[in-house]
Amino acid sequence: APTSAPASLDELAVGVELLVDGLARPTHVTSAGDGSGRLFVTEQAGRIFVIRDGQLLEEPFLDLRNLVGANGNEQGLLSVAFHPDYAENGRLYVNYTDREGTTVVARYSALPDDPDRADLASAQVLLRIEQPAPNHNGGLLKFGPDGYLYIGTGDGGAAGDPWGNAQSLDTLLGKLLRIDVDGGDPYAIPADNPFAGQAGARPEIWAYGLRNPWRFSFDRATGDLYIADVGQNRHEEVNLQPASSAGGENYSWDIMEGRECYDARTCDMAGLTLPVATYSHSDGCSITGGYVYRGAAFPRLQGVYLYADYCSGNLWGLRAPFAEGDGALLATLDLRVTSFGEDEAGELYLADREGGAIYRLVLE
Description:
Helix content is about 0%, strand content about 40%. The protein is an all-beta fold. The model has no long low-confidence stretch (mean pLDDT about 95).
């Protein structure tokens, strides 16, 4: 019989097992949701590879190196998302920075006669977002339970949001966007987007006040949305948007950093949504958001949201209801975690950028 959830996260000992190596700076790992059991890994320089039955296939699924600019540390091919009906329509979406540093969101199609290859000639660009600096590109694409495509964007880079992008509704930077890829060409605006029809606001915006949302995810059991946001000098944070939300949240950057005022001269907290968890730069320097565990292999992990720090390798867990005091430290890994991934069964994986490897999350 499954073991019941522990009273305390301190009882959990989380570890990792190597799945595959031989990759070059992996930035994202995900499944296609098509019943194949495959995982897909993006490399920063512009290639996507397939992991099938625990083996890394030699030929890339898609090679975009001629289009991708990855000179900056945070630039490159940053994610891939597969359409909810991918098994029928073969459509996938990528987010990358091009040779000029502009963020590009584009659609491709799998080759009908080779499920392990995509058609380079099938490209259709949905969005181009100019970036004033090479850092803070966000870059994650993910389909929500509502079938819409969510896009995380950073505030445009540099430090301290000098352009005021995160709090401005007339720019797509510093936001979570939500678009309908099926309702228009190249996309439509969902009618219930919170700023649709508002003068001076970009209708694609779902939420704002973000600095560099480095990985967000939906709890597959509840639909709740977790957004990890990279901090400036002092605090990293996890934000929560309940499934019942109608969008429009202001996650407070650059008024706040974590739960503290970033600029005391302008620290009006009215209408702000503050994080459910933070950690200070004594415990790391850059958050990598993960997933709520909903797999079957480790029942004691059920309902735990896992996230890590890129610099320290610290891995934390959170379990609702959240309390001030933040996550429990579950492990310190010798990895540079750029991304978590979730397979079709709900098991979790981690991408190690410097080691060029994908690991499976396990309980020790």
